[in-house]
Amino acid sequence: METLENSELCFPHLLNASCRRPKRSHSEAILIYVLLSSLSLLTVFLNLLVIISISHFRQLQTPTNTLLLSLAVSDFLVGFLMCFQIMLIDGCWLLGDGVCVVYQYLSYIITSSSIGTMVLISVDRYVAICEPMFYSTKITHRRIKVCVALSWFCSSSFQSLNLSDNLQHPGRYNTCLGECIIVINYIAGLADLILTFVGPITVIIVLYTRVFVVAVSHARAMRSQIAAVTLVTVKKSEIKAARTLGVVIVVFLFCVCPFFCVTLVGEQTVLNASSSAFVICLFYLNSCLNPVIYAFFYPWFRKSVKVIVTLKLLQRDSCEANML
Predict the structure, then answer these.
(1) b/e for 160-186, b at 16 or more Cβ within 10 A?
(2) Which residue windows are transmembrane per the record (predicted)?
(3) Domain boundaries in the chain?
(4) Which of 45, 121, 221, 324 is 20 to 30 Å from 75 by CA-CA measure?
(5) What percentage of residues in the chain have a pLDDT greater than 90?
(6) 3-class DSSP state for residue 18?
């Protein structure tokens, strides 16, 4: 009986201090491990293809694709962080309090920077569709790079301040050994909710609603052949890009909103690995879906993947290849 009880502990040799493992059948545990491991590898591989494509081929290095590159880097890192979540499926954290805090800290940075990138994508599409005459002057490659860098810097700085107590005292809020918990006070949690969710999501919805209305009006005008007379013509490629990125944003919101909704309705802003497993995995799934969306909607991505997989990427001057 004592052996059975000890086998349910994360650290059997520490009877009074160890956390207990959740009861789960062996087949269920194997299935979860296989699914999450496959999702992690697929996420890393697909987003690596996006990163290589945009970084290598000069023709793809446009302002809009620079934003997709930033998003792909976030998704690529999510694929690696998934390895830690896979460990938590067993119900025990075995890597120590320091690694636990770093894991949670990186998760927060990636989440907030991804949302920041989505805001920038919405702004990019808004200018392209609603103010096409000024797009080339307002949206430059250099400005986009600066905005992306600021997005990552602000996310890192804010989350460092937000999680300062946890970073200074790792494991302070753990109730037993084998637990991975961080606690955010009410004011910090409210600020995080407003600055990284409510505010950005509102901006995204408002801008894309305007983009949708203008895109529909342009489409109707082009069908009636009066666009050249009554409207400033928007390129069909820009409208197609807006539609594709709109899909990316909708899928992103669908996968990220549950995480913030759980935080919003919770009595305390406490993130426990076991209680938030579903919403975290849903967020991870989004990182795998983005490259799949590109494959369906962007011919240049399918073409670049073919070049990469066939190793034509190693040929001389391959970066100058026509991908469009």
Answers:
(1) eebbeebbeebbeebeebbbbbbbbee
(2) 30-54, 66-89, 101-123, 144-161, 193-216, 245-265, 277-297
(3) 26-169+176-320
(4) 324
(5) 15
(6) strand
Which 3 state secondary structure label does DSSP give 226? coil
| Partners of 271 in the β-ladder | 182
Does residue 233 carry a pLDDT above 60?
no
Comparing 81 with 25, the larger pLDDT belongs to 81
Which ranges of the chain would DSSP assign to H, the alpha helix?
2-7, 26-56, 63-88, 96-130, 135-138, 141-162, 164-168, 186-193, 199-223, 227-230, 236-265, 277-297, 299-309
Count of positions (residues) in the chain: 324
As a 3-state breakdown, the chain gives helix, strand, coil percent values, each rounded to 5, of 75, 5, 20
Tell me: pLDDT of 229 over 60.
Answer: no
**Cα distance between residue 199 and residue 193, in whole Å:** 8
Nearest to 303 by CA among 322, 275, 279, 277: 322
**Structure tokens of 136?**
């080339």
157's CB contacts (< 8 A; 6+ apart) are none
CA–CA separation, 147 vs 12, rounded Å? Answer: 50
CA 47 to chain CA mean position, Å: 11
C-alpha 65/C-alpha 67 separation (Å) is 5
Task: Name the architecture of domain 26-169+176-320.
Answer: Up-down Bundle (1.20)
CA separation, residue 297 to residues 33, 146, 157, 229, 321 (Å): 31, 27, 35, 30, 20
**Torsion angle defined by CA atoms of residues 283, 20, 22 and 182, in that order, rounded to the nearest 10 degrees:** -20
pTM, whole model, 2 decimals?
0.83
